[in-house]
């Protein structure tokens, strides 16, 4: 059927035939034309009694909540029986486990604590969840020795160092309040390349959920919808992902770096690339993951089951001698100890739970997370709803995970296996069940149990503590050695070094050390300055902390100032250069991605996606490529020359000055969310004064000839400048709010 109708689409487990589709359509037609039957409401999205089976139906939800609220394991067994004996709903329901002829005594199985260490809560952001729910999950995971995941919305610094701090900090691809202090306070840094229920799509936090706290943590504007760009906006290739992994390992060498992938066809090949890019963990997310923040069509039609992605990933990594270098996790709809056991057999060594802990806290699975009116006070920022209806406690979440771990131990005993580690990859302990319908009977699950062509001595699980990168970052280590005393004494200092394009993520190691001791801005009053000559490699000034100033005489590659939160990055051409700086590229693509503060002054032009998702940095360049200021939420950008197309797409905060010498800029702006204004009118005096100050500082720092020409003759050029601002922004307060940014 696939070959005839969907040629080129991957079909891994076969299944439905034309005769099955015909039978379904006939049954539907018979029901539709039956005068004695009312038209069915459906039940595809929300549970309808007598409609399609829902994994989280009211019986399952009620049974789980009764168990965790009472702390009664017998009630949990009632819940797990409802799940494990349900109608066939997932691929794993067609796989049975082979019990041992001689089961082990429970005392012979590894203890609860060893299993709990393998559990993570999945990444759900503060913003999607209320602070109470988010903190309850974090505290619960810390108490049982497991890990909670912050999600991509940042975390309140007041939680760092407490039991409410998430050990896994998600950075998505470097946006939404990612600062060096945030990165330092983590055991695992997770790059979310995609989300299970909506692969390839960005996220969105409705404006109604963006209150003062959420806006502060995400460096955004209260009440304004936050659009989260899909990952391809800064990860175009496996090399770009490898660079981000290196960036994170530089700023926090103690942390493991995780990459979250989706269980799509071919994910095994991608996972092999991720392992070669020196990730320490890989999460394979199934289509049941992340449905709370997904469009209805994605919930229904996008993604694939984790069983397919996990098996493919495990087999591909083993076949390429990579399985021993990385940990593999899966998430998406895990509910019981039997789910954990089947996931381990298919290749997972750790397990992520997203929806289940929320159900444990009281969520009724109403699928209204995006409306900010959650009836249980879990997925809302409405203080009254949280105060009146949130009943969740840390103990409820602790009970859930301890029950799942205890049930996992019982299954291990039945299987005759002493630990989860021994179970990983043991597909000989699974058997394929016949299924309940003709369509299920045609499903071929043998590829999930494959691997017979892989030598038996290949590792089934990770055998190393970390997956260290080939690049040892020697210049970065030299910088730490030079600056260590100054950082500890908070005394400042100045150093001169040569740099070449092999030196990547320069500044990240020093910024990490500053943030570890003094936070994001603690060194701002006593800055450390490094002066470089040469060509910088990728990510020059990434995660730059306050109090670190980097001067570069030469040029730089992509990602300059990515995620910077303070300090200054000054890039100038080599002295006595003959070329005109306003016509010459000096920094690469995707600079200032997700920056939250600091200044970037570059005497030359930048590449594409300059200041994408900028949330607070101040920048001056002499030209940019396409998509400048895309998804920007704060700070300001001054472009002293030509821009590319699609300027200001998705821009909801901050503002920009653009010099338009040939009157072509108006055709290059994306007008959906921004409007243009001249700064020559009487009411714009404050902006003219601000621009003059910006140019004065720019010329003083870079000695740009083009900047000096504009500054000297600013009255002649003023009528050529446009002010680009979000339509929702107030002109009167825009300047003052940007100046108030402490960075």
What are the SSEs and their pairings?
Layout (H helix, E strand, L loop, with lengths): L1 H4 L12 H15 L25 H13 L2 H12 L10 E3 L14 H5 L2 E3 L9 H13 L24 E5 L7 H5 L3 E5 L10 E3 L6 H7 L7 E3 L9 H14 L4 E7 L4 H10 L4 E5 L10 H6 L4 H14 L7 E5 L5 H9 L4 E4 L1 H6 L22 H7 L4 H22 L4 H4 L6 E3 L5 H4 L32 H16 L3 E7 L8 H11 L9 E9 L11 E9 L8 E8 L24 E6 L12 E7 L11 E7 L13 E7 L14 E5 L6 H18 L2 H8 L1 H4 L3 E6 L4 H9 L4
Parallel strand pairs: 2-10, 3-4, 4-7, 7-8, 8-9, 9-10, 12-13, 13-14, 14-15, 15-16, 16-17, 17-18, 18-19
Antiparallel strand pairs: 1-11, 5-6, 19-21, 20-21
If you had to describe this structure to a student in words, what would you say it looks like?
- The chain is of the alpha/beta class.
- It has three domains: 2-32, no CATH class; 58-445, Aldolase class I (TIM Barrel, Alpha-Beta Barrel); 476-739, Glutamate synthase, alpha subunit, C-terminal domain (Pectate Lyase C-like).
- Helix content is 32%, strand content 16%.
- Strands 12-13-14-15-16-17-18-19-21-20 form a ten-stranded mixed β-sheet. The chain has a seven-stranded parallel β-sheet with strand order 2-10-9-8-7-4-3.
- Helix 13 links the parallel strand 9 (327-331) and strand 10 (350-353).
- Helix 3 runs antiparallel to helix 4 (73-84) and helix 19 (474-489) packs parallel to helix 20 (508-518).
- The longest helix is centred in the middle third of the chain and has 22 residues, at 394-415.
- The termini are far apart.
